Give the backbone structure.
Amino acid sequence: MSSVTLKNIVKRFGSFTAVHPTNLEIPEGTFVTLLGPSGCGKTTNLRMIAGLLDPTEGEILIGGKRVNDVPIHKRNLGIVFQNYALFPHKTVAENVAFGLKYRDVPKADIAGKVQAALDLVQLPDVGDRYPKALSGGQQQRIALARAIVVEPEVLLLDEPLSALDANLREDMRVELKRIQHQIGVTTVFVTHDQSEALAMSDTIVVMSAGRVEQVGSPSDVYNTPASEFVANFLGASNILAGHCEQKDAQGVVLDAPLFGKVHVPSDKAGQVQQGPAKLVLRAEKLTLFDESTATDGLVTAPARVETVDYQGQTVRYFVRVGDTQLQAINMIDDTPFAEGSAVTVGFRPQDCAALQGG
Amino acid sequence: MGWNLIRAWSIGVYIFMFLPVAVVVLLSFNASQFGSFPMTGFSLRWFVELWNNEAILRAFRTSIVLGLMTAMISTTLGVLASLALVRYRVPGANTISTLLIAPILVPEVVLAVALLLFLNFLGINKSFGLLLFGHVIFTLPFVILVVQARLISIKRDVEEAAMSLGATPVQTFFQITLPLMLPAVLAGALFAFTISFDDITGTLFWKPGGVETVPTQIFAMLRNSISPEINALGTVMIVMTVGLPLLGVGIARQLAKKSGT
């Protein structure tokens, strides 16, 4: 197990810059997720850590040692690929044993280690089958067993869940996290799925267009997005351009359109200074009320329901406040509001966040 | 009505294609002195005569050695070329690929004369080596076509997985890539062998004096008369050039089934 450090890493393909100067510190034993839309450079970063791509500039350190010139087969990593990448001509046991052959593992110990790895992924009885006889989820478990049996310094997961169907994906998510906890290996996970990132990570690195947008715990990046991109990429947000009028120890006072003055507490206001600022309001924090309901302590505005998108457990409303359309995702108690009804929308000031900029 | 017509037509085409072959096989068992109808009785006499014909046996040995060497060299070169073209970013890969395939498109006689003139120009004499060289040139495209197609279907991430587990690139090739493309490699080698074994046009131009392959030997024998021996030889060749590839395809299929791809 080792830490991973990226120092001023840059990757260019011809004239295209896939990764702009990036610094990242992944402490030993943590589960770090690189999250972003396709083309944001997350996979490029992973492949550079793996040694499948050479960085154009900068240094990669694994366990404090520079590995830029260490080829992939000497880096002692475990990689799980999106499409499993099992060896189709080898049995499951041979697949799992593959990496052990290249390490100083006594022959007599190999079978035991293979079995232990298969037990860990809860597929103890498939050793003599061929990969094609297994389901997608099972194949991905074998791929994981193959990667961890060699006790790698770092486990690299390249969208390992996206080839699985929805139910299986959620099971595997829990499973993957359990195994990572159990063996405590430093893990770098690449995904474009925000719910996977939020559920599994110790730290999330949100990336966009080759740059790191924010590094933080799941609740940090979710509740206190550092940029408009992060606010929009992790769930749906309403972003209102306003003006920061006052800043003190308690927080900032933001004059937002539609809602007037909002006191944003300091832990949600980041580095916002006086001047143009934005109010970030998550769709699930904006609640619809009957016009008659008392809404003490909330910041409110009158609104009209334009679209109702019923999703069973929740309902997504598009409401019009003045000349602006806002999105709200609410739990349903009984019947949702009808399209066209007049309502009050409101939120608690501590549930929103402020960003600098116009 | 329409279907019956098509059916009858298809049968007609097959008869047209295979009847001459069937006739050769049939006549090879004819007891008569002459290599033509009527059949006068069943006999293996001509196969025995063939077995005792020193010139034909020599031609046979030449053909087999030539075919095996052609297959070995073409397959090795073809696999290496396919690896380079598919797995690495070679500048001008498309052009190289087209040039390697081109010998299929150029009429064989043109290729034969061109190579001969070229070597004359360089002052190199005809030799068995030159004959082998010529055969490699026009069997290589077949190997490359088959192996390349297979290699494209082998995902790069399987190789990357092997390397991430500690296998060097060379170990990865022998442990993963080669076993996975083995069916195509065997098919390519068989193609190369049968094409070389069958070839006459290029061989006539390139063979040094005194060296005969089976096809050129038959050609030489036909100048005198149609000996029944030739029918027997034809039968043997049909067994070899049809039977061997079928066997090869069968083996390749078994291997592919085992590896599950």
Q: What stands out?
A: The interface with chain B takes residues 50, 52, 71-79, 81-83, 85-89, 98-99, 101-103, 130-133, 143, 146-147, 150, 156 of chain A (CB under 8 Å). The two ends of chain A are 45 Å apart (CA to CA). The first strand of chain A starts at residue 4 and ends at 13. The CA atoms of residues 37 and 192 of chain A lie 5 Å apart.
